[in-house]
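User: Please check token order:
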Amino acid sequence: MNLQRPNANDATRTANRSKSVVPMSGLCSRCVDSCTGNCEVFRASFRSRELIYPGPFGDITAGGDKNYPVDYSHLNIQGYALGARGLPEGVMANSDTAIFPAVNTETEYGWNGRTKMRLPIFTGALGSTEIARKNWDHFAVGAALSGITLVCGENVCGIDPQLELDKYGKIISAPDMDRRIEMYRRYRSGYGEILVQMNVEDTRLGVAEYVIRKHGLDTIELKWGQGAKCIGGEIKVASLERALELQKRGYIITPDPSHPLSQASFEDGSLKEFERHSRLGFIDEENFYAEVERLRNLGFNRITLKTGAYSLRELAMAIKWGAQAKIDLLTIDGAGGGTGMSPWRMMEEWGIPPLYLHSAAYEFAQRLARKGERVPDIAFGGGFSSEDGVFKALALGAPFTKAVCMGRALVIPGIVGKNISRWLSEGRLPNTVSQFGSTVEEIFVCYEEVKDLVGADEIANIPLGALGIYSYTEKIRLGLQQLMAGARCFSVPAIRRSDLMSLTEECARVTGITYLMNAYRDEAMEILEGTHDGHGEHYTLGSLLSYVGTSRRFRTYE
């Protein structure tokens, strides 16, 4: 664990002068009177509140870089030399049938009506941040072509400059929301869905009523929070007029744009931007059930819930109340996840980290299942970016976890593809790209696949960011097939918790996943003693495995 926390970070565009840093404060061990900067305290001395947020806004996504005591890297994936689970019914397992390209990476979620995805990942909420707005076409088309769900995040309607409201403050027209929904739907081919997220402001504006009336959406998502921060969504606003407009729509704006001092500061150039904030949500059981019922009565077939890295109390509420309300998917987002804009220190120091939160989620879900209650389908989020993380998350939460929510990892390929398009038009491809060719066809290895999907006449309309996302998801899919085949799991439902092992005893205590020197040890001893029959997909202790150690909270069923 990194005990030195510099009072500086690339996210806030600051740096310590000294190589020696006081562990607690992050300050240089020797602070010199004549120092010209540039630690966070130095810059905050004249730029104040600006140092709360990573920047520059609109051009970055940021993720916390705190090194937690235990994380997903402390788990490894088991591999086996016999057996195969999850092959199609009637297929005999042998070296010709149990090959990794035969692994089925499709997943599905939902209480009654099921949504299928080609692979068990989907986008984090892409809402009112500038990164999401200006790159939306790349993200939406890429997700649709990849066959995964796309989450349209909070506040999209509320910040739309062309938003029209009736005399009651309800939405009449929201062109940016229309654009976002229509772009995804244009290229969707039976897999995934677009779901719109709602916070306090969205509910007040009537976002649910608008998207069901105008677009007939099947799914709406309630939002309790996310892993990046424990307050509402935020963006920066570069003009006084825009800040006043958003304040009039009911948003919290800091500093207050209607105050004469703020206006004077903006006029003299010292105040360069405002921040728009969403309100904190307040939850209670009765109102949660009532809101779910209201949304169903509006016509939504599926209701999902997104929650963040809150205390174990709120986690239990989300799982228990979600089960009672029969929600279709519960996304549980661990601390430190990437975002368009969150207070940097909050992203670093707030909330329960992913592995701890997800381990508790499994424990709570299993507790309900033992009582005979049906648990909502679950997705884990919190800094995932590769196929090994996807496998580990699915296994850790099995059989409840159906997918992994990816934030920055699905944003980056869209931005890369967009930039390749710009570099091509300007004739200045960097060597990192030009080494593979000088045309779109040469650069993107999946170009012909996408062309086959959309047709020769349509391929010219596909933004290159979408090609980037499709290429990235294909890498995830193929890599996941290989990992699943090695663990003898030929479909997503075949993945089990016993396909993981803990590399440290502390990880075993947190997760309930057996320490690797104990995993399958009894079976190994039976083989050495000649008492094992040598048959079966796996050598198991029977139907029940339990981790016995300093923690006895977990019991893992095969």
